[in-house]
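Bit of a strange request maybe. I'm writing a small parser for structure token strings and I need a real example to test against, not something I typed by hand. Could someone generate the tokens for this chain?
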Amino acid sequence: MHPIIHPMNRDSTRVLLAAACLLALSCGGDSDGPSAPSPVTTSSLSVTYPEDHGTIYIGDEVQFQATTSSSGSGAQAATNATWESDAPAVATVSSSGLVTAVAAGEATITADVPGSGRGSRRIRVFPEFHGHWEGDLNVTGISLPPDWQELGEENCNGLPDCASWIPLTADFTQDGATVTGSVMSTFIAPPNYEWTIESGTISIDGRLTLMSDEIAFRVPDDAGDIRARLISWESRADTPGVMTGTAAVQYSSDALSGNPVVEGCFEADNIIRECSGWRRQRGGGH
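Reply from user aminoacidic:
Good idea to test on real output. This should exercise your parser:
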């Protein structure tokens, strides 16, 4: 007796074919293998300003740029950045990334770009001391031992107690926080005397501090070699082209006893003696 075989209908055939396909996939029947995952795109944000600008001084305006970098499209300028400064008293920033330096100090400029994150740049703002300065040291205090006082009564060209101001000039070169150059006085003539500045430094808050070695010269009445040393100099240039501050000069001599000290503040000219500050003369500015 032969078995009876029932023909399969179309629906049954479709079910069997689908099951066969699933079995083939589960057993690695797909000759192409599993599909590769889509590449992951990474992005970053950088904040820069023109390299040729160099040192940022009080009063400068500098255009900052936010740039996005991604593995998919490379570097592109971000036009939708939101800008901010963590120290607007030092440097402000506009909505377009224009930074204005308003005072000495440090600030962080940050750009925020949707989808790319945040980027920042730390900057330092300097006062500018570079250039040629002219003015006076208006004497505000003086200490003269007896020997020096007697000499001063005989010869007013030789001692600082015979004048209310001492004319000075200064020529400075600035490299970031370091200032070099010279300070010269025409108080004793002839000759003038000059202090060489090799390591003046500018602090974070903008103060310039100078010191110098002793300089020897002779006074007209043959009292002997007198050495003048710039023992302190602190100045500021919070307003571009104007320098204010104080200085002290110490004198000494083998022929005279004591070490007189002259202290004073900077003057803009010889007439208005109110310590209003020197003004930069020829050759100044950047």
